[in-house]
Amino acid sequence: MGFTLVYLSLLVLIPLAGVFFKSAGLGWDGFWHVALSPRVLAALKLSFGAALIAACINAVFGTLVAWVFVRYQFPGKRLFDAAIDLPFALPTAVAGIALTALYAGNGWIGQYLEPMGIKVAFSPLGVIVACTFIGLPFVVRTVQPVLEEAEKELEEAAASLGANRWQTITRVILPSVLPALLTGFALAFARAVGEYGSVIFIAGNLPMVSEIAPLLIIIKLEEFDYAGATAVAATMLMLSFVLLLIINGLQAWARSRKARNK
Amino acid sequence: MTTAIDHSLLDPPRLPREPLMETNAAITESVWVRRTLTAVALLFLAFFLLLPLVAVFAEALRNGVGTYVEALKDSDALDAIKLTLIAAAIAVPLNLVFGLSAAWCIAKFEFRGKALLISLIDLPFSVSPVVAGLVYVLIFGAQGWAGPWLAEHDIKVIFAVPGIVLATVFVTFPFIARELIPLMQEQGTDDEQAALSLGATGWQTFWRVTLPNIKWGLLYGVLLCNARAMGEFGAVSVVSGHIRGQTNTMPLHVEILYNEYQFAAAFAVASLLAALALVTLSIKSWLEWRHADELSALRRH
What we know:
The complex is a heterodimer of chains A (262) and B (301).
Chain A: H1 2-24, H2 27-35, H3 38-71, H4 77-83, H5 86-89, H6 92-103, H7 110-113, H8 124-149, H9 152-160, H10 165-194, H11 197-203, H12 213-222, H13 226-261
Helix pairs in contact in A: 1-13, 2-13, 3-8, 3-10, 6-8, 6-11, 8-10, 8-11, 9-10, 10-13, 12-13
Chain B: H1 20-23, H2 31-60, H3 64-73, H4 75-108, H5 114-126, H6 129-140, H7 147-152, H8 161-187, H9 190-197, H10 202-231, H11 234-240, H12 250-259, H13 263-290, H14 292-295
Helix pairs in contact in B: 2-13, 3-13, 4-8, 4-10, 4-12, 5-8, 6-8, 6-11, 8-10, 8-11, 9-10, 10-13, 12-13
């Protein structure tokens, strides 16, 4: 018990508190000066925006994948099921260079997209692709167990009461999955906001265009602008906490609504 | 004119392969909807998951096996592999001990602030790895709080191996605890109490009762922790300083080679890491199929 607390505070809490202390050293004005500078704002906007879009893509396709895995039979299901966890296991740098190789102008996918005027690698679109890759398992793995436990009797009841399949899915299944879906969404989002390894290779890292916030922290560190780096870090931490709080609130709301409906 | 005989009437009645409920038309979709959905889902997975994996190996072997082996025999690459193994060899056991003790005190005892402790353990999951690296630079770096003291005693943490180990520990911190907490909570304390009442010492109880109960969950956690420890990039990149042959781990080496346009070599090292990921995934899937009941308690990964 004591050991747990000491280890936790030594390795996690004190260092994180350090970020806020250090950025407090800048003073209020100094902090906002860094946090609201155009380059930082652009980076934060890209990081959070791309993560949000990626999390939405994952929410849709992740749920679809979970649904297909739980309800349908097809050959190779186990293999695909195991592959879902690939983004957890594959080092982010490897994922980054692999995605870049695929989507670059001469890559397997890029060579077809580029003539159509879609530039994925070295543009904000690439950031979204990388964020989608790393966030996918979070949604699938949180939604899947809930779908597995969903009671078919409820669906039968809905069908016997005259609901068509679409109504059953949107009115019966979706509400019961919603809390898990929101959790998965939040996890995928939080992960994508802070993602560094897989994004920097594909992003191209043009200041103001495709430069993500974590990269900006590293750039500031390399310029020995420690205070600036911590200000960006503190802003990121605060924004993530706020967003996680909102999503936790949404989840509580979904849960209480579900409880009321029972 | 011959009359066609309907052979289907002669066949023995076919039993439905699945329980009737599965094929109940009222609660499933038409065949075409099912096929389309499955196809869309699998295409998405193929594009986003399998293709990148294939690309790693294809790119690594593009210039033939000779260049591939050459890239791995490079002394910088060997040093990077060695450092990665060292960092993982320190970080994983540390987090193993922590994960065990954290899960132990959360699952077996009641105390105030338990929920808070659990969410604190999860914290490294939601903190950007770059920020994780940054905090250690702030503390141990030349301008950091402990910096001057460390410089006096000639201890190097940042841009040296200890920093890499620290960053790795931070990032991989929740993995084992996360796996064990729900498992041990579900198992409760009955077995331990029985052992204690039969005269076993606390230590004996732990080795003979608790540990065998959680061994598969523990292995599962160690596996995930190890995969992340060896593959960590963001946090390690901040604290390492990228000194070749000294503070370069495998993922960092991939980056350096890639930025120098040595694509084949970069993908060769990357393919080793990808192979590690594949091994991790196969052991993990094997564990899930063989010991599903012992791991069942809330699988979040």
